[in-house]
Design brief:
By secondary structure, the protein is of the alpha+beta class. It has two helices and four strands, in the order E-H-E-E-E-H. Helix content is 25%, strand content 28%. Helix 1 packs across helix 2. One of its GO terms (molecular function) is acyltransferase activity.
């Protein structure tokens, strides 16, 4: 049985820098009223691994400036982790909402719901549970990877949802 491993492969240093220091990051499960799909029992354990993999990828990207005046948080809410129960090939779908929040003003600089699939073909492994586990790994890795790609378009000076005092 392969371990759950959400570490995103092939993350390089970003040529673009976000003029903000990343101060904290959290990954939590969405509330039942926020869910966009299944949040199976036992999923709570995956949030820490998701956060570690995301932190590792952002560290490798070196996209945030450690000495910037602006301080930001990243908050991730896992809204779905749809794992197939059986099948020859396995496709797991993850949906997560990523937000970058300005710590000083509360403005939401960036927010997006990202949906990603992790597809494992029938010939990947003989045992179905191995294919299922790998499809979870690939889905979360693809979800994080899409967020990393979106970071290149973030402009901290143009928040998507400015705090009421800034309007």
């Amino acid at each position: 049985m392969p371990p759950l491993n959400f570490s995103v492969p092939n993350v390089g240093v970003s040529p673009k820098k976000i003029d903000a220091e990343l101060r904290s990051m959290t990954v939590t499960l969405g509330r039942p009223d926020e869910a966009k799909g299944d949040l199976p029992m036992g999923i709570e354990a995956t949030t820490a691994m998701w956060q570690t993999a995301l932190q590792e990828a952002i560290d490798r990207m070196a996209i945030f400036k450690d000495d910037a005046a602006r301080k930001v948080n990243i908050q991730v809410k896992v809204l779905a982790l749809n794992i197939p129960v059986f099948g020859a090939s396995f496709t797991t779908k993850t949906i997560a909402r990523y937000e970058i929040i300005d710590r000083a003003t509360g403005s939401i600089i960036y927010t997006q719901e990202i949906a990603a699939d992790g597809v494992v073909p029938a010939n990947h492994a003989f045992v179905g549970v191995v294919r299922a586990r790998e499809s979870i790994n690939r889905s979360v890795q693809n979800n994080i990877s899409q967020f990393l790609q979106a970071l290149g378009s973030v402009d901290v000076n143009k928040p998507m949802f400015p705090a009421p005092t800034q309007q």
